[in-house]
Amino acid sequence: MRKFFSKTKYTIRSLKASAAIVISAEILLSVFSVCFMSGAVYPIYKHEGGELITPRRTYKYISYESTENGDGTYSAPLYTIKNKANEEIHEQIIKSGDSLEPVPIPPNKPGQKFYGWYVVDDPVEQNGSVTYRWGSNPTRVNHSVVMTFDDTADSTVYLAPVYTDYYFISFHEREEGAPTGSENILTRRFIAFGNSNTTTVKISDVRAPSYDVHEIVFYGWSYDGQNYITVNSDGTENETYITVNKSDSDGGEIDIYPVFEKARWINFDVNDGGDGSAEVVRSQFVIVGQNGGEVTQLTPSTRNGYSFLGWYTAAEGGTQITGSDGRVVSGSADLGESGRLENGKYIINNNTTLYAHWQANQRSAYTVIYWKQKVSDSKNASVKTYDYDSSETRTDNTFKNLGSTSFNN
């Protein structure tokens, strides 16, 4: 730090971020200090009489190479970092409204990972070494985040690195005990327990590939003797989290294995003639056992101007599987190789396609929208512009969609 002593007037400039900004002009100074930190330059100044105008806070970093003293205190040298001028320093100095520059992350220790910089209690610095103790609830300090404080005098805060036990949760390719593939790992996810023996991990965003796409589907993950279903029957994600225990780890590894099930697919043809007027329904898989898989409810479709009658085994005619609400109809029917109906249950034996049946509504509601030409348009404009005016709902006989028509008033 350089100090200039003067009784004259100065114009003080900031050179931070490669820009020159006039902070204040014509200030009568008794002490004027310029602080160089991480390549930034900003003024620290006092009025005559010693009143501090811009308090500074100094953050000093303590090394990870600490020694326990046996009395609840620790000792360690200061941690060396480099500023943007490539100079070795041990601290950063900021004022309220600034942020700390990121510093190099200390190396991991065996079985432990750097967790963050935390404020220590009772620091005593002597000859480049700091003795300190940990409080019951130390404060974590984040870098690259604007920090505000209401200090009325310069202050110094000492930061020491905190480490935590770290583990990896391994997602395996095949079921535990499978003849092949169970030792293969699809991905590993880092987890940190911190001060707790348990932590929560999301698992539904990882999927194992099916080893038989025609008959076998990935259904979820198995952990600690319990199966977790992470995929909905239409193939979408069923958001799922598990609580893992530190005691379940084996050398820092926690293993989970995929759950595969034999399944059959129901595909849905909305049977709208290809004009896109009906809502598409995603294919659905059904887990099957020795006697096939059963469903009691399927997703109905919708179509403008039509009422949905249900799902059938053919585009015209066929056997009705569900009613208009998607519930499987009562009664029994042999559907051949695809399956059977049995008292409100649809039993699936093989992949199949169902077809929507529709009934045209005699009268349907529709909306008429009125637009009016902007008054700012030229009378003979070749391209006209319009503003929304109003709309109304009408009911009329249902007919095929012929598009839209414009009328000039």
Radius of gyration: 36 Å
Unreliable residue runs:
1-48
Report how far apart the termini are. 80 Å
Give the overall pLDDT as a whole number. 82
- Percent in helix: under 10%
Instruction: Report the sheet-strand fraction.
Output: over 45%
- Work out the count of structural domains: 5
Task: Please identify the structural class as seen in this structure.
Answer: mainly beta
Q: Treating each run of at least 4 consecutive H or I residues as one helix, how many helices?
A: 0
Based on DSSP secondary structure assignment, what is the total number of beta strands?
31
Shape: flat
Main pleated-sheet profile: 12 strands, mixed
Tell me what you see in this structure.
- This protein has 5 domains: 45 residues, no CATH class; 109 residues, no CATH class; 96 residues, no CATH class; 97 residues, Immunoglobulin-like (Sandwich), CATH 2.60.40.4270; 35 residues, no CATH class.
- The protein is 0% helix and 47% strand.
- It has no helices and 31 strands.
- The protein is flat, with a radius of gyration of 36 Å.
Which descriptors apply to this entry?
409 residues, mainly beta, 12-stranded mixed beta sheet, 0% helix, 47% strand
Layout of secondary structure:
Elements: E1 2-4, E2 9-14, E3 21-28, E4 31-37, E5 40-46, E6 57-61, E7 67-68, E8 73-77, E9 81-82, E10 88-89, E11 91-94, E12 112-119, E13 121-126, E14 129-133, E15 140-141, E16 155-172, E17 185-192, E18 198-202, E19 216-223, E20 226-229, E21 241-245, E22 253-269, E23 284-287, E24 293-295, E25 306-312, E26 332-334, E27 339-342, E28 346-348, E29 352-360, E30 363-373, E31 386-397
Parallel strand pairs: 6-16, 16-22, 22-29
Antiparallel strand pairs: 1-4, 2-3, 4-5, 6-11, 7-8, 8-14, 9-10, 12-15, 12-16, 13-14, 16-17, 18-21, 19-20, 19-22, 22-23, 24-28, 25-29, 26-27, 27-28, 30-31
